[in-house]
Amino acid sequence: MIKNTLKDSLQKSIELIDVNLTLKGPSGNVNILHNISLSICEGSSVAIVGPSGSGKTSLLMVMSGIERVTSGNILVNGEDISTMDEDQLSVYRRDNIGIVFQSFHLIPTMTALENIMIPLDFAKIENSYTVANEVINNVGLSHRSHHYPSQLSGGEQQRIALARSFAVRPKILLADEPTGNLDNENSKHIIKLLFSLNKQNMSTLLLVTHNSEIAKHCDRIITIEDGHVLNDIKS
Ligand SMILES: Nc1ncnc2c1ncn2[C@@H]1O[C@H](COP(=O)(O)OP(=O)(O)OP(=O)(O)O)[C@@H](O)[C@H]1O
Ligand SMILES: [Mg+2]
After folding, report:
1. Looking at residue 103, which CATH number applies to its domain?
2. Do residues 78 and 72 lie in contact, with contact meaning Cβ atoms separated by under 8 Å?
3. Phi, psi of 45 (to 5 degrees)
4. Residues near 168 by Cβ (< 8 Å), separated by ≥ 6?
5. What is the C-alpha to C-alpha distance for residues 229 and 105, in angstroms, rounded to an integer?
6. Which of 29, 31, 58, when mutated, tests ligand 1's pocket best, judged by the most ligand atoms within 8 Å of its CB?
7. What CA–CA distance (Å, rounded) separates 94 from 10?
8. Which pLDDT tens digits describe the chain residue by residue (235 residues)?
9. Domain around 201
10. Which ligand 1 atom lies nearest to the CA of residue 55?
11. Ligand 1 pocket: which of 21, 30, 207 to mutate (most atoms <8 Å of CB)?
């Protein structure tokens, strides 16, 4: 079964097969994801929606390899990340994944430009300074390059976080409510950026959102409820 899926998945970006996630809570084990099977095509945009606590963030965490599945397999371009050790997983993340969280996770003691240079340096990209300058320009913030996160507005910090995630042109971008803390104007700007970068880089976008208008912009909407896939609609 896995062999066949392996062959099929070569054209697919991400394949989840019977994924289960159980974590230890204060009062025993909690079953968080139940038998999730999904195929996500390369370059597509997928909205992940569902009530609070339904498992959306957990789903992104297992796809990034930050959280290990309890059972099941996750194939990314045919490679099974569920059997990788920690070193292999960190290389997988470096080479494939960009993550944008709801809170920006910028390093406070580094300037905007230095924050963007982190993944570039980690990936040993030689002209990281030039690339970081290009990327900061793409998000319209070159005039803020030498500012520290505390000197930037929430919207600006999120644009820097987005620039940092996209700097290495990851094949897969995981965005967990990236506009959750922003006002309407800044949200629109971030979403526009996400979709234009998704198209320019042909990267696969998985976007957790509570906003149905934003979800409708995606190629596909997956609804998670109580750790199950409730609905999977192509738009
Ligand atoms: N480390 C953990 N240990 C135990 N339970 C956890 C852990 N992380 C998450 N959970 C539980 O797993 C369930 C799913 O959490 P998750 O964060 O994936 O939900 P979500 O859909 O992203 O919710 P929200 O919309 O509020 O962000 C919740 O019931 C949560 O309490
Ligand atoms: Mg969440």
Report:
1. 3.40.50.300
2. no
3. -115, 130
4. 94, 98, 119, 120, 123, 125
5. 29
6. 58
7. 20
8. 555 554 454 456 899 999 999 999 888 999 999 999 999 999 999 999 999 999 999 999 999 999 999 999 999 988 999 999 999 999 999 999 999 988 888 999 999 999 999 999 999 999 999 999 999 998 889 999 999 999 999 889 989 998 999 888 899 999 999 888 778 887 888 888 889 878 888 899 999 999 998 999 999 999 999 999 999 998 7
9. 2-234
10. 18
11. 30
According to DSSP, the residues that pair with 234 across neighbouring strands are: 220
Q: How many domains does the chain have?
A: 1
Looking up tokens 């976080």 gives: 161
23: tokens are: 């974590």
CB-based contacts of 87-94 (< 8 A; 24+ apart in sequence): 89/65, 92/65, 93/64, 93/65, 93/66, 94/119, 94/122, 94/123, 94/168
Q: Could you tell me the pTM of the whole model?
A: 0.89
